[in-house]
Design a protein that fits this description.
The protein has 15 helices and 12 strands. By secondary structure, the chain is of the alpha/beta class. The chain has a domain of 131 residues: Aspartate Aminotransferase, domain 1 (Alpha-Beta Complex). Helix 8 links the parallel strand 5 and strand 6. The two termini are 31 Å apart. 49% of the residues are buried. The structure holds pyridoxal-5'-phosphate. The site of pyridoxal-5'-phosphate has 16 residues, from helix 4 and helix 5.
Length: 394
């Protein structure tokens, strides 16, 4: 794929990190010389003292398979510390609820994953008394207007689920620095391959590893990466001691295995997505396509600047009734209708049909059009994907 700021050396290095020397270093320590990190299922590790002291003692607190994955993911994001959680939501809720004190102030992008929206509007506001301001983060001025010296955390998703809106990470970093507050980015849609928020100055990055990082639709998980020692200490303490919401060794193994092919998969996802986006853009029954890689995306320039590619996620507005839209979804044979994204299989989700109670109606968060279709473009043959859409569309 040609990108406006293609940097081959970065991508080559990324692929080497993804395949993962962290793992071999660790297993060689035990002199077993595994090329792939073994799954350590033991819940407890024999105690010894002094120079012989063990790195691990109880698997909730730390586990060798988890430590190997945390190293690997931290390196992928170019960060100092990594933590992996039982789900993307566990990563997000642990970060937000740990870093914002009861009654504290949080500013969030108004286009946001439905689970994060519920966390912020119900649990955080209702139970912990947070003061949450949702703003249209496409314009950094809106973020600047909402932040003040008492703000504990700025939170943004970019690109957003499902509207594919972007936030200018560098511009928000400047705002966060001015007010000496923390800035966290949910970078799930871009994956570490196409976007490096820590390099742009953000303090915290989160991923739902369920999506591109694992990439095979068979593990629920989440990750947090940060350079800040203080943030890491707080989150690690919350996870290990109080919340116990870490990723299991088996799931760590699956994610570590998935990460090895992340660069190859992301290139292919993007190539297929570009073909599907162009096909949809030229179809009469499609009113609008939201794909940051298209010149018609209102934030295409920003996407080319802060991302090194555009990933496999897009959405489009169907030009027709909800009944016709349902018939389209039922007529698909290669695409599967369903939740989630980032796996090898192409999926479509229509929020108004499939998750009607979860979609933003524009009260506090961004309105999701009734005929919006979110598409996760998988790794099948691009011509087959376009043909499937052509046949199913009216
Ligand atoms: C899926 C998703 C989440 C939640 O992750 P889970 O692993 O399902 O808990 C958070 N943010 C974004 C952008 C997502 O797509």
């Amino acid at each position: 794929m040609t990108q406006d700021n293609d940097d081959d050396s970065y991508k080559n290095r990324f692929a080497t990190i993804a395949v993962g020397s962290a793992e071999t270093t660790r297993s060689n320590k035990d002199r077993t010389s595994d090329v792939v990190s073994p799954i350590h299922l033991s819940t407890t590790f024999e105690w010894s003292s002094g120079d012989e002291a063990n790195e691990h003692d109880y698997s909730r607190e730390s586990n060798p398979t988890r430590a190997a994955l945390e190293d690997q993911i931290a390196r992928l994001e170019g960060g100092k510390h990594g933590l992996v959680f039982a789900s993307g939501m566990a990563a997000i809720s642990t970060t937000i609820l740990t870093l914002v004190p009861p009654g504290g102030h949080l500013v969030s992008s108004d286009s946001i994953y439905s689970g994060t929206e519920k966390l912020l509007t119900e649990l955080a506001t209702g139970h912990f008394g947070f003061d949450v301001d949702f703003v249209d983060a496409r314009d950094p001025e809106n973020v600047a207007d909402a932040v003040d010296s008492d703000t504990d955390l700025i939170w943004a998703e970019t690109p957003t689920n499902p509207l594919m809106q972007l936030c200018d990470i560098r511009a928000v970093v400047d705002i966060a620095d001015n007010y000496n507050t923390l800035f966290g980015v949910d970078s799930t849609f871009a994956s570490p391959y196409f976007q490096a928020p820590l390099d742009l100055g953000a303090d915290i990055v989160v991923h739902s590893t369920t999506k591109y990082l694992n990439g095979h639709s068979d593990s629920i998980g989440g990750a947090v990466i940060t350079d800040e020692d203080g943030v890491f200490e707080q989150l690690s303490f919350a996870q290990r001691i109080g919340l116990g919401n870490m990723l299991s060794p088996f799931d760590c193994y699956l994610v570590a295995r998935g990460v090895k092919t992340l660069p190859a998969r992301m290139e292919h996802h993007e190539e297929n997505a570009m073909a599907v986006a162009r096909f949809l853009e030229n179809h009469d029954q499609v009113a609008r396509v939201y794909y940051p890689g298209l010149k018609s995306h209102p934030q295409h320039d920003l996407a080319s600047e802060q991302m090194s590619g555009y990933s496999g996620m897009m959405s489009f507005e169907f030009d027709g009734t909800l009944i016709e839209l349902e018939a389209f979804v039922e007529g698909l044979e290669v695409f599967t209708p369903g939740a989630s994204l980032g796996g090898a299989e192409s999926l479509v989700e229509v929020p108004s049909l499939m998750i009607p109670d979860e979609v933003g109606h524009g009260e506090s968060t961004a309105e999701i059009p009734e005929t919006l279709v979110r598409v996760s473009v998988g790794l099948e043959d691009a011509a087959d994907l376009c043909e499937d859409l052509r046949t199913a569309l009216p």
